[in-house]
Amino acid sequence: MPIESEFLLTCVNVILRVPALYIYEIWSRDEFSANIQKQLGADEAAGEGELAPGAAMLDLTLPCLALAIAFLPIEKLVDFYMYVMSAVLVIICAGLCKVYIMTEIEDFEKSGGRNEINLMRLGIHLSLQCLIISVITYLLHLKHWTRFTLLVYTVPIIARLCYVNPYTLLSTWEFGCTYSVILVIILFISHLSQIFDVINQGLHEASVGLAVYGWLSYILILWRKLSMQVQFLLFWVSMFFFRLYINANTLDNPLFEDGWLDGWLLIFLASIGDCCGTAVSVFGLCVTVSYASYATLAATKLYLQGWNGFTDDLMLHGGWTEGFTMFLLAMQTGITELKSEERAFLMSIVLFILVSSLLQSMYEITDPILLGLSASHNKSLVKHVKAVLLCTFLWIFPLFMTYIICSVFDVDLWLLVIVSSCLLTSVQVIGSLVVYSLFFYDALLTEPWEKLDDYVYYARATIRVLEFLVAVFVVFYGTKESIFGQWSWINSSILIIHFYFNIWQRAQEGWRSFLLRKEAVTKILSLPEATEEQLAAHNDVCAICYQELKTARITPCQHYFHALCLRKWFYVQNRCPMCHTTITMPGEGTATEAEQDEELPNEANIQDDVGDDVPRNEEARDDVPANEEAPDQDFID
């Protein structure tokens, strides 16, 4: 099948199935049953909490109709819509006929009982009836004589042409309505066998699919086959814009009393709240949030890298994190049980959380691109300016959001945890800009900047300390609230989890990193520095960076390395990069073979922390003495 035809078929499939979500949304609302009872006039006939027979039948029919639209095969679904459109056209015929009769009665009364015929009106109505019946015949593919029976609503018009009294025409109209109902019943009964065949076939396919794939895989297959995510997106967006139009065009809307901008913001939040009344609409909101987040992240990639930025790694930031966050927040807050005003109030906090998460995802995309521009000495000024401008937005906008949310709500533990995550994004972006500036300055120098690694470490350590202080402040404030305020198990659980992940683990990681750097510096200082005569006699390059050895440190196994390169290596392990001999400081002694095996790190981590220039040896050369250099072949390996 051509791509265009497949895309068109998918669009038709989605559009035809979206009404199922609308039907289920209407059926799920609490006021639906009450309105049906009121319309049927059965409030007194049924007891409290019970439905009248007509309302109960409608209450049962709607979900069945929604299921049929959602899961019918596309061919059967098209036939179903043909019958629905034909039924609507028959109702239009009945309405036009009733309008014609009432107009004739009105003219008859105004003329004082004179039986005059308006031929123009008669011709127009007769032509409309014939045109509509022709459309119905085409939709239903009627070819036998029964199609002429659909002209039943032309009987009053033809009777009027024969000067029949207008009041008598009402009887012919009632006959036409009765005939139409009987015709629909006969048509339904004649198609019962086909309906049961479709149901049986669907159940059989479902049972086979469940047996072959399992219930979870089969649900995912149906989800992709029916493009359910697009259905939910189209359903929720259309419902949202409808509610937005209704709320914005309401006369004397009190939401505009606080100003035009604030009024539109409140209308926006109120419209979102109105579209979260049922589980279906909430799930549609989650899907919409996912697509909106994905579009924002894709636009970020496009802004920074152009079309070359659209790679598979974008799926790692596919917006599903924000959608899943929205789902968890909706489940936690019970948003469907709240009133419309309460939902609008809650949406302001929920959107703050979602935007904070989205800004963090944007930072995760921007950070490696920003640092890559400086580290790779990229000379494209436009790329640098775009990355810096985006980072400027990413650290200013969270501060603005924090100011707005704190000026509207009272600060408590929950709000503090939410705001802290938003502030951390600003702190992280500022840290990335500082590191970018350091790398950019290093690129302008003609000689390698030996202090670059230290300054980068200090900058990142400062950011980590600020993150740590924010986490500690949240814990102290939460503890104060629990002791002197209202205590609850939920707040205590949040504090414990927050303390473990954001304080205890970060403190351990930071202290371990500090000790490793301190030990590496001490080891470097304990190694002798090569003299000019030794460097001239060695006449080689650094085995780590493959650059000329103008200065070097000599390991106990008589290997020469740059002090800076060797220090970075010692951040990962304390073995010689060439022969894997354990390097110890004076007074430490020699490590046992078991201890040396335990100290061997993961090779992937070495490459990540030191660089791709580190030579990879498959195993340690135990047969090489500590005071003897490895063979040339080992150096090449």
TrEMBL record:
Gene Ontology MF: a single term: zinc ion binding
DNA-binding as UniProt keyword: no
SUPFAM superfamilies: RING/U-box (SSF57850)
Coiled-coil region: none
Any Gene Ontology biological process: ERAD pathway
Amino acid composition bias (Basic and acidic residues), ranges on this chain: 613-624
Pfam families xref list: TRC8_N, zf-C3HC4_2
Compositionally biased intervals (Acidic residues): 625-637
Record carries keyword Cell inner membrane: no
Transmembrane segments: 80-101, 122-139, 145-163, 175-196, 202-223, 230-246, 266-292, 344-363, 387-406, 413-441, 461-479
Intracellular or extracellular location(s): Membrane
Domain of life: Eukaryota
Any one of the GO CC terms: endomembrane system
Region entry Disordered, spans: 591-637
Record's bilayer topology term: Multi-pass membrane protein
Residue ranges of every copy of the RING-type domain listed in the record: 542-580
Alphabetically ordered keywords of this record: Membrane, Metal-binding, Transmembrane, Transmembrane helix, Zinc, Zinc-finger
PANTHER family reported for this sequence: RING FINGER PROTEIN 145 HOMOLOG (PTHR22763:SF191), RING ZINC FINGER PROTEIN (PTHR22763)
Protein name: RING finger protein 145
Organism: Lingula anatina (Brachiopod)
